């Protein structure tokens, strides 16, 4: 797809690429979505390329880290996700769980902000940061496609931002779910392209 352009100032949002989600010894490792898996699939390589491209153009990069504080003591009554969170209590402040994985380490000046629970905008200052950067477009990458990446993208659109989703820079526990979301949901609300296409149009 070549007949498009980036209309406005973009910001790259890296969602939940943290040790508490992706480390081999994390509480979520049993799901199979680990740093090693994302290296083999090329997802991390695409994210690194996006980071390099944005940094070269001096465009904003924002990291979102899921952080479960002690103040969160109740969870919705229904849903397997909430059962897991209530029993595991992952991603606590001050733990290694809330560190960005080394492969995507932030550079000085790049904000790393906490959110909870799903969308990068929930209980965070993401909207204020985007406003400070005068960003008009969000380019969203991370994990998981059908959860935090989708929720962040949809909330960005609701707030009036244009959204671009590099289809090879996010991942799901189930590759079929990833493909389904990329084909049937994201195109309704934004632009789905490859990482290389994003970099070509920066």
Structural features, described:
The chain has 202 residues and is α/β, with parallel strands linked by helices. It has one domain: Rossmann fold (3-Layer(aba) Sandwich), CATH 3.40.50. The protein has 9 helices and 7 strands; from the N terminus they run E-H-H-H-E-H-E-H-E-H-E-E-H-H-E-H. Helix 3 runs parallel beside helix 9. The two termini are 15 Å apart.
Which residues sit in consecutive blocks of at least 5 with pLDDT less than 50?
Answer: none
Determine the strand fraction and express it as a percent band. Answer: 15-25%
What's the CATH first level? Answer: Alpha Beta
Structural class: alpha/beta
State the helix count. Answer: 9
The fourth-level CATH homologous superfamily is Isochorismatase-like
Look at the structure and give the mean pLDDT: 95
Key phrases:
202 residues, alpha/beta, Rossmann fold, seven-stranded parallel beta sheet, 7 strands, globular
Quick overview:
The chain has helices spanning 19-22, 35-41, 43-56, 80-88, 126-132, 145-158, 175-184, 186-189, 195-201, and strands at 10-15, 61-66, 112-115, 137-143, 162-166, 170-171, 191-193. It has 202 residues and is an alpha/beta fold.
Architecture blueprint of SSEs:
Layout: E1 10-15, H1 19-22, H2 35-41, H3 43-56, E2 61-66, H4 80-88, E3 112-115, H5 126-132, E4 137-143, H6 145-158, E5 162-166, E6 170-171, H7 175-184, H8 186-189, E7 191-193, H9 195-201
Parallel strand pairs: 1-2, 1-4, 2-3, 4-5, 4-6, 5-7
Helix pairs in contact: 3-9
């Amino acid at each position: 797809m070549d007949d498009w352009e980036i209309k406005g100032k973009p910001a790259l949002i890296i969602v939940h690429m943290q040790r508490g989600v992706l480390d081999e010894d994390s509480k979520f490792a049993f799901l199979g979505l680990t740093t090693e898996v994302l290296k083999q699939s090329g997802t991390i390589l695409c994210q690194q390329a996006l980071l390099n491209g944005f940094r070269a153009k001096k465009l904003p990069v924002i990291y979102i880290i899921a952080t479960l504080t002690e103040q969160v003591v109740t969870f919705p009554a229904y849903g397997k996700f909430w059962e897991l969170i209530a029993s595991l209590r992952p991603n606590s402040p001050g733990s290694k769980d809330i560190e960005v994985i080394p492969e995507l380490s932030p550079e000085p000046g790049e904000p790393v902000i906490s959110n909870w629970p799903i969308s990068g905008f929930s209980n965070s200052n993401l909207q204020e940061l985007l406003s400070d950067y005068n960003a008009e477009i969000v380019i969203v990458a991370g994990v998981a496609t059908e959860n935090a990446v989708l929720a962040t993208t949809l909330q960005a659109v609701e707030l009036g931002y244009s959204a671009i989703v590099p289809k090879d820079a996010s991942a799901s526990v189930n590759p079929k779910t990833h493909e389904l979301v990329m084909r049937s949901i994201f195109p309704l609300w934004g632009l789905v392209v490859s990482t290389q296409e994003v970099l070509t149009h920066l």
